[in-house]
Amino acid sequence: MSYRIAVVGGGPAGLTFARVLHRHGHPVALLERDSARDARPPGGTLDLHQGLGQLALDKAGLLTEFQALSRPEGQAMRILDTDGTVLRDWRPRPDDRANPEIDRGQVRDLLLGPLDVQWGRAVTRVVPGAGDGVVVHLADGRQETFDLVVGADGAWSRVRPAVSSATPQYTGVTSVETSIDDVDTRHPDLARLVGDGSMAVYGVNRSLVAQRNSGGHVKVHAQFRAPLDWHAHLDLADAEAVRSSLLARYDGWADPVLDLLRRGGAFVHRPLHVLPVSHTWTHVPGVTLMGDAAHLMPPLGAGANLAMLEGAELAESVAAGPADLDEAVRAFEERMWARAARWARMTTAGLERLVSPDPAEALALFDQVQPS
Ligand SMILES: Cc1cc2nc3c(=O)[nH]c(=O)nc-3n(C[C@H](O)[C@H](O)[C@H](O)COP(=O)(O)OP(=O)(O)OC[C@H]3O[C@@H](n4cnc5c(N)ncnc54)[C@H](O)[C@@H]3O)c2cc1C
Q: 177-196 pLDDT, tens per residue?
């Protein structure tokens, strides 16, 4: 029997779900709010882990393409003291493929491939148990009915209220992002500072992390503890005002490190929110969640990996043609909840240590997780 299935959201979770279903010849309606593939910048770099994101790409038949595009050397990680002293300079072995980096836009394009995305279709709400199936309400006023609706619509999911009343809470840590283009040719000093992968500096309740993307593009993240309204007297669209405010916040740090802020372009504000660590819900027939919609956690290298693996796993069980679709979804949820809770605990504890009153905590965490 062929079920009518919709996935809401074309991020890592929704695209992987749709692509694996497509590989198995199963139709799916992919409803995406963005008006087009390039409606907004795709974001920075992702490290995809063996056994998580890479396993998902394998299930989608895309592992070889991933290996050709990804940057194993991007796993390199350097930690500096606030005075610019190099404290750690870790580089991967040449054959290390545990967590290579890849641009988010490249992953998106790999997964999109032959998929027929319904762009510009924002979902406003989902109503289960209404007659013939689950009714999806769209911003254009239309309604469509499905046997299964998968909410892969991220942190501020419009599908989630159909199964759970949980809403993301602010962690107390905010992130302000800027980027630098053509770093190798225009800013060779910063290129050397950042190296092949990431560079991080940890101070009291603040950090500065720079990550190399492909094509000489570097993203810089200033993360610090602050009230959600820290920018109440600041126009976030005014790059120079944000730059001055950040430079004041990081006052006393070494000049080469602060140059990452001085030479960046526009700034994007991303306060870090999370869902409760063990977010579960009473199963609702015909609706489920995956990815950030189900388990938003601090951005410490797990969210996209989990989102993709969940997408691949649910697609495989749906494609297997279960006699009882609902049973398959229940089994998926149990597995997702247990795995996501483990990662949510780790990343929540990780954020506490990385943006901490005691910067030695960040170094200790690095030494704990990074193979020497
Ligand atoms: C700075 C930063 C760095 C990160 N680095 C990493 C990393 O290295 N590795 C890693 O694993 N994770 C990383 N993460 C986390 C990762 O980005 C997320 O966990 C991941 O994107 C979640 O994927 P998703 O598909 O669940 O949701 P999203 O990526 O949020 O995608 C949701 C999609 O749904 C669409 N949508 C939203 N609302 C609607 C609606 N109402 N109707 C229709 N469509 C809708 C959106 O337009 C979007 O396309 C990082 C996060 C941040 C902020």
A: 999 999 999 999 999 999 99
